[in-house]
Amino acid sequence: MTKVVHESDARTARSRSQLKSALLELLGEKPFSQIRTKEIAGRARIHRVTFYDHYAAKEDLLEELIDDVLTEYADIIESTPSNLIAQWPPMLLVKTIRQSIRHIGKHAEFYRILLLTNGVPDLTNRLHDQMSRSLHVSLGRMSTKHADIDYDLFIDWIIGGAIAIYKHWLQSGMKQTEEDIAKQMLRITLAAGQVFNPRRVIL
């Protein structure tokens, strides 16, 4: 009985994965509003009836695809060690940045659609909001904060810079290696890192 359940779970996971991949391919060709459920099923080589075994509508499939990727990114940001946030040590920081860049590279097609096209309206705002929530979680664990810093503005500044770098990397065909991009992000972030050490801030 257990074996049958496991096989059923594996088939379900495989079908869902195929449908997500198919939707992502189609989003690279046309806006979401123009994609039909029949097209998704056909691209995934899955019967249309099978599609409805998993999702009530194409919107549900899209929502799960977005949640999967953005939740993975949120986990990277929120898992930043507290001592990294408090002390801003380069060796720990670079690990988080590398993981973020690796995540963008792993889901490059998703982020191309998200950042470089308007195939799914408001998707860039979804990324911004998710990053904002996650950074608030991370920065909320800081033991020391600079009283004169508006952290909502600081977080928006971080997000704007990160998204700009991701867009540049994707637009350039990802010619720079993940390591090169990570090093550049580290240098830029460390240049602003004095925000986390009030004694270094001179106004």
Report on this structure:
InterPro entries: Homeodomain-like_sf (IPR009057), HTH-type_Tx_Regulator (IPR050624), HTH_TetR (IPR001647), TetR_C_Firmicutes (IPR039532). One of its GO terms (molecular function) is DNA binding. This protein has ten helices and no strands. It has about 200 residues and is mostly helical. The protein folds into two domains: about 55 residues, Homeodomain-like (Arc Repressor Mutant, subunit A, Orthogonal Bundle), CATH 1.10.10.60; about 140 residues, Tetracycline Repressor, domain 2 (Orthogonal Bundle), CATH 1.10.357. The longest helix has 26 residues. The model has no long low-confidence stretch (mean pLDDT about 85).
Low-pLDDT sequence parts: none
Straight-line distance between termini? 69 Å
If you consult CATH, what is the topology of the largest domain?
Tetracycline Repressor, domain 2
CATH class wording of the largest domain: Mainly Alpha
Helix content: over 70%
How many domain modules? 2
DSSP strand count: 0
Strand and helix order: HHHHHHHHHH
User: Which percent band covers the strand fraction?
Assistant: under 5%
CA-based shape? elongated
CATH architecture of the largest domain: Orthogonal Bundle
Averaging pLDDT over every residue, what do you get?
A: 85
| Major sheet | none
Question: What structural class results from the helix and strand content?
Answer: mainly alpha
Radius of gyration: 20 Å
Number of helical runs? 10
